[in-house]
Write a structure and sequence with these properties.
By secondary structure, the protein is α+β, with helices and mostly antiparallel strands. It has 2 domains: 41-229, Alpha-Beta Complex (Penicillin-binding protein 2a (Domain 2)); 233-270 and 300-601, 3-Layer(aba) Sandwich (Beta-lactamase), CATH 3.40.710.10. It is 35% helix and 19% strand. The chain has 22 helices and 23 strands. The strands form 7 sheets. Strands 2, 3, 4, 5, 10, 18 and 19 form a 7-stranded mixed β-sheet that branches. Strands 12-11-23-22-21 form a 5-stranded antiparallel β-sheet. A 3-stranded antiparallel β-sheet has the order 1-8-9, with no helix packed on it. Strand 21 (520-526) and strand 22 (534-541) form a beta hairpin. The longest helix has 27 residues, at 2-28. The relative contact order is 0.11.
C-alpha cells in the first residue's frame, strides 16, 4: 500500500513539474518562441562604429561613414530573378552564384554576406525591390573614411576577417572587419567596440514590420574608443610631399616624451583606396606593385647600414670606456690604414683632428681608430667586441623597442659569437671588423631606431619608448612614461652634441643651416651593394631643450647632405616655426625626382610601373 502510494506520488509530482515547465516556456519565457518563429523574425547585427582617430592637434585622421551589406540566409532563399538582382547590386551572375554556394557551405541557417559595403545610392535602389528576393536582407554598417588622406602607413586599414581569424577570435563573425595594419591593428580591441543585436518582424514579402516585442531582446551596440595619435598630420602630409618621387622614410620623435611626430614611408598611397567595394581590386594593385612597394612600411621594416651617423655612438662608447677624450687627436692621411687594409676618407684634412671637428668633418680615420681602440681596450678582441656590443644595444639597437606599433624589425648588432661563427676561428682582431667603426659591415638599423638614437643624444643619455598613440578615450597611455637609460654617462654627451652642432655650422650639413634655429645633426652615406648609395641624416633641434629628433633615409640619394639633410632642416623649421624661410630649397626638394635612379638600380626581375606614378 505504501509502495503504490509512493509510486503515484512520484508520477504526480513529475507530471506537475512538467506542467509548470511547459506553462513557463509557453506563457512566460519567449526565448523558445523566438527560435520557433525565426522564419518571421530576423536577427540583425548592430555594428558598433569604430573609434575615431585624431592627430595630436585634434585633427580627424580616421572617421566613419555609413554603408550597407546584402546578406542571405540560404535555407530561406527561394527562386529569384538572378539577372535582376545582379543588375541592382552591380555584380556578375557567376560571382553571385559562387557567393551563394559559399554561404551554403558555411551554414544553411546563418546569414552570409553576398555584397558588402554598398553606398547609399545602391542601398536605396535595392531596398525598393528587396521584396522580390526572399531570404535576402540589408544590414547597415559603417566604413572608414580619411578626410585629410595621408599617413596611410600610420593609421593602417581594415579588412574582412578570414575563417582562420574567426577560429582564433570567436567574438568575430563572417563579414566583420578588423584592423590589418597600423593603429587599426595595434589598437583593434579598443577601436572595434561591441556589437549589438536587434530582432525585427518580417512579413511574407520580406519587408520589415517593426521590432519584436518592443525590443525586449535587443542589445545596444557600444561604440569603439576614440584615440588621439601622437602624429602631427599637417607635418606628416608636408613630409610626404617632400618625399614625392623618392623612396625612403622619415621618422620624427619628440625627445621629451617618445611620441612619434611623423612616420613617413615613401612611396605611399591614399588610404581611401582601401575602403568600399573597390577595396579588393585596389589592394591587389598595390600589392602587385613590386617596384614602388607602397604597402611596405620602410620606416619600420627596412633595415640599413646606418653609415656615418653611427660614428656618434662609437664616440660615446669610446668616451665611456676611456679610450679617448675631447683632446685626443688622430691624423687622417686620406683614410684609415692597417697593413694592407685601407678605409678611404674624404674629410679633406691632413692635420690632427679632435673629437668635435672629427664629427663635423665626418672623418673615417678618426672613428675607425676609435673603434679599434675600443676593441683593443680589453684583454681580448672577443671581450672588447662584447663590451662594445653591450653598450650599443643600450641605445635600443638590435632589439624590439616594445612599442605600440603593429610591425617592425630589430635590426642587428653583432657580437663576438657572431664573428667567431662568421670567420670560423676566434683569433680575429679589431681590424677584421673595422667597418663597424663607420656604421657599415654587418650592422643594421631601422629608420625608427635611427630617430630614437637622435632622441637619445638629444636627451643626453636616455630615451622614452617611441609610441604612436597618446591616449585612448579619457585615459592616457602610461606604459611609455618611464625613461630608459644608456650605459654612457650623461657628461659624455655634451661634446658629441657640440660636434653635431658643428655639422651644421661648419661641417657636412652647413648648406642646410638655419640662422634662427640651433640645429644638431649628422650626415651619412650608407653603402648600397645593389646600386647608388643611400642619403642618410639624423638630427634634432633646438640644440638645448630639443623639441624634435629626426631620421631620414632617401634611397639611392648619393650622400647625406644632398637630400636627407635639406629635407630634415625644412621639417624641423616647419615644426618649430610653422613656416619656411627658404622657399627655393623647399621647391628644389619638392620637385626632386629620383625615379630614374630607381630604374637604373632596381632588380631587373621586378615588374616595372611608370616611375614615380601614384598607385
Amino acid at each position: 500500500m505504501k509502495r503504490s502510494t509512493l509510486l503515484f506520488g512520484l508520477i504526480g509530482t513529475t507530471a506537475l513539474l512538467f506542467l509548470i515547465r511547459l506553462f513557463y516556456l509557453q506563457i512566460i519565457d519567449d526565448s523558445y518562441k523566438l527560435n520557433a518563429d525565426s522564419n518571421a523574425i530576423r536577427k540583425l547585427k548592430l555594428y558598433a562604429p569604430r573609434g575615431t582617430i585624431y592627430d595630436r592637434e585634434g585633427r580627424v585622421m580616421v572617421a566613419n561613414k555609413p554603408a550597407y551589406d546584402l546578406l542571405a540566409i540560404p535555407n530561406q532563399v527561394e527562386t529569384f530573378d538572378t539577372l535582376k538582382l545582379c543588375t541592382l547590386v552591380g555584380i556578375e551572375p557567376r560571382e553571385l552564384r559562387q557567393k551563394l554556394r559559399d554561404a551554403r557551405a558555411y551554414s544553411r541557417f546563418k546569414p552570409s554576406p553576398i555584397v558588402q559595403q554598398m553606398n547609399q545610392v545602391d542601398y536605396a535602389r535595392l531596398g525598393e525591390q528587396l521584396y522580390a528576393f526572399k531570404g535576402f536582407y540589408i544590414q547597415k554598417r559603417t566604413l572608414r573614411r580619411y578626410p585629410e588622406g595621408g599617413a596611410a602607413n600610420v593609421v593602417g586599414f581594415v579588412g574582412e576577417v578570414t575563417d582562420a581569424y574567426i577560429q582564433k577570435n570567436p567574438e568575430y563573425d563572417r563579414g566583420d572587419l578588423h584592423g590589418v595594419t597600423g593603429i587599426e591593428k595595434s589598437y583593434e580591441k579598443a577601436l572595434r567596440g561591441i556589437k549589438g543585436t536587434r530582432y525585427v518582424l518580417v512579413d511574407v514579402h520580406n519587408r520589415e514590420k517593426g521590432s519584436f516585442r518592443n525590443g525586449l531582446y535587443d542589445t545596444t551596440a557600444v561604440p569603439g574608443v576614440d584615440l588621439v595619435a601622437t602624429i602631427d598630420l599637417e607635418l606628416q602630409r608636408y613630409a610626404e610631399e617632400l618625399m614625392r618621387n623618392k623612396r625612403g622614410s622619415i621618422v620624427a620623435i619628440e625627445p621629451s616624451t617618445g611620441e612619434i611626430i611623423l612616420l613617413v614611408s615613401s612611396p605611399t598611397f591614399d588610404p581611401n583606396l582601401l575602403v568600399g567595394r573597390a577595396r579588393s581590386a585596389n589592394y591587389n594593385a598595390l600589392e602587385r606593385d613590386s617596384f614602388a612597394k607602397p604597402l611596405y612600411d620602410r620606416a619600420l621594416l627596412a633595415e640599413y647600414p646606418p653609415g656615418s651617423p653611427f660614428k656618434l655612438i662609437n664616440a660615446l662608447v669610446g668616451l665611456q670606456l676611456g679610450v679617448m677624450d675631447t683632446l685626443k687627436t688622430y691624423t687622417c692621411h686620406h683614410g684609415f690604414h692597417a697593413g694592407s687594409l685601407h678605409v678611404a676618407c674624404h674629410c679633406g684634412t691632413s692635420y690632427p683632428l679632435r673629437l668635435i671637428p672629427g664629427i663635423a668633418k665626418s672623418c673615417n680615420n678618426f672613428f675607425c681608430s676609435t673603434f679599434r681602440d675600443i676593441i683593443n681596450s680589453r684583454p681580448t678582441s672577443r671581450e672588447g667586441m662584447n663590451t662594445w656590443s653591450e653598450h650599443v644595444k643600450s641605445f635600443g639597437l638590435g632589439q624590439f623597442l616594445d612599442n605600440d606599433l603593429p610591425t617592425g624589425r630589430k635590426g642587428f648588432v653583432p657580437d663576438a659569437d657572431y664573428y667567431n661563427k662568421a670567420f670560423g676561428y676566434t683569433q680575429w682582431k679589431a681590424v677584421s671588423t673595422i667597418s663597424l667603426g663607420i656604421g657599415q659591415g654587418e650592422l643594421l638599423l631601422t629608420p625608427l631606431q635611427m630617430a630614437n638614437v637622435a632622441a637619445t643624444i638629444a636627451n643626453r643619455g636616455y630615451f622614452y619608448t617611441p609610441h604612436i598613440v597618446r591616449s585612448a578615450g579619457d585615459t592616457a597611455i602610461a606604459r611609455f612614461s618611464k625613461p630608459r637609460r644608456t650605459l654612457v654617462d650623461p657628461k659624455h654627451f655634451e661634446p658629441v652634441v657640440e660636434g653635431m652642432h658643428q655639422v651644421f655650422e661648419a661641417g657636412t650639413a652647413r648648406g642646410s643651416r638655419i640662422e634662427s634655429i640651433p640645429m644638431c645633426g649628422k650626415t651619412g652615406t650608407a653603402e648600397n651593394p645593389h646600386g647608388q648609395d643611400h642619403s642618410i641624416f639624423i638630427a634634432f633641434a633646438p640644440k638645448d631643450e630639443p623639441k624634435i629628433a629626426i631620421s631620414i633615409i632617401v634611397e639611392n640619394g648619393y650622400w647625406g647632405s644632398r637630400w636627407a639633410a635639406p629635407i630634415a632642416s625644412l621639417l624641423m623649421e616647419r615644426y618649430l616655426h610653422d613656416s619656411i624661410s627658404r622657399p627655393e630649397l623647399e621647391k628644389r626638394m619638392m620637385e626632386g625626382d629620383l625615379s630614374q635612379e630607381y630604374l637604373q638600380n632596381a632588380d631587373r626581375r621586378l615588374v616595372r610601373k611608370k616611375p614615380g606614378a601614384e598607385p
